[in-house]
Design a protein that fits this description.
single chain; 213 residues; alpha/beta; 60s Ribosomal Protein L30, Chain: A; 4-stranded mixed β-sheet; two-stranded parallel ribbon; binds zinc ion
């Protein structure tokens, strides 16, 4: 056996003082997995990564985000109950609103935050990119999974409950008794968004917008 190899075998591995402490390693592992998740979310270019993340989440790091609302959702007249729930989460620190969204849409969420004793901040930044109008953030890393930070739209929720698309789009209009019964049965919380056609409506030939024919 060559002497070099024997030497190698006899050598005991020395612990060098430069080796990172367990805490440092754990911190690195945590940030590394956060980076990986961001990569999986489809954002490219490692050095740009954190900056892109902050541009998208209204100036916040992804790992601090509890809940987000899109501009489209923000424009809906009703408050998303999920935001109220997120704001009452003990980990929630504040509500951040994109300053480019109209005040008439922001107001209801600012009032909501105030009524729950949470701070809300409006941020205006031309660097912001994406479809978000509002984020609820923690002051520390919470690492909420992607599918939990996004809120389903009214359409998505109703579709999940088996309401046909035409009937979902007929909100605010008069519908036939069959359609109304379907809403009552599968999504009773939506009843207020619909009215039933009267006998007279039907006599005048009004058609139910909730279905074809
Ligand atoms: Zn109908």
């Amino acid at each position: 056996m060559p002497p070099e190899e024997q030497n190698g075998k006899q050598k005991t591995p020395a612990v060098t003082p430069e080796e990172p402490s367990i805490n440092e390693t754990a911190a690195w592992a945590a940030s590394h997995s956060a980076l990986e998740r961001t990569l999986q979310a489809g954002i490219h270019g490692a050095p740009e990564l954190r900056r892109d993340e902050k541009r998208y989440f209204l100036g916040e790091f992804r790992e601090r985000v509890l809940k987000v609302l899109t501009k489209k959702q923000m424009a809906e007249p009703e408050i998303y109950e999920e935001i109220r729930v997120a704001l009452t989460d003990p980990r929630a620190d504040k509500l951040i609103i994109d300053g480019s969204t109209p005040d008439r849409h922001n107001d209801k969420y600012e009032h909501l935050a105030a009524s729950l004793g949470k701070q809300s901040t409006t941020r205006r930044d031309s660097e912001f990119q994406g479809d978000l109008a509002l984020v609820v953030v923690s002051d520390q890393a919470v690492d909420v999974p992607d599918e939990e930070i996004r809120i389903k739209t009214r359409e998505e929720k109703l579709r999940d409950k088996g309401i046909p698309d035409l009937l979902i789009q007929a909100a605010g209009k008069k519908i036939c008794l069959n359609c109304y019964s379907l809403i009552q049965e599968k999504a009773p919380e939506e009843k207020g968004h619909y009215r039933v056609m009267s006998m007279l409506d039907r006599l005048f030939g009004e058609k139910c917008p909730g279905h074809e024919g």
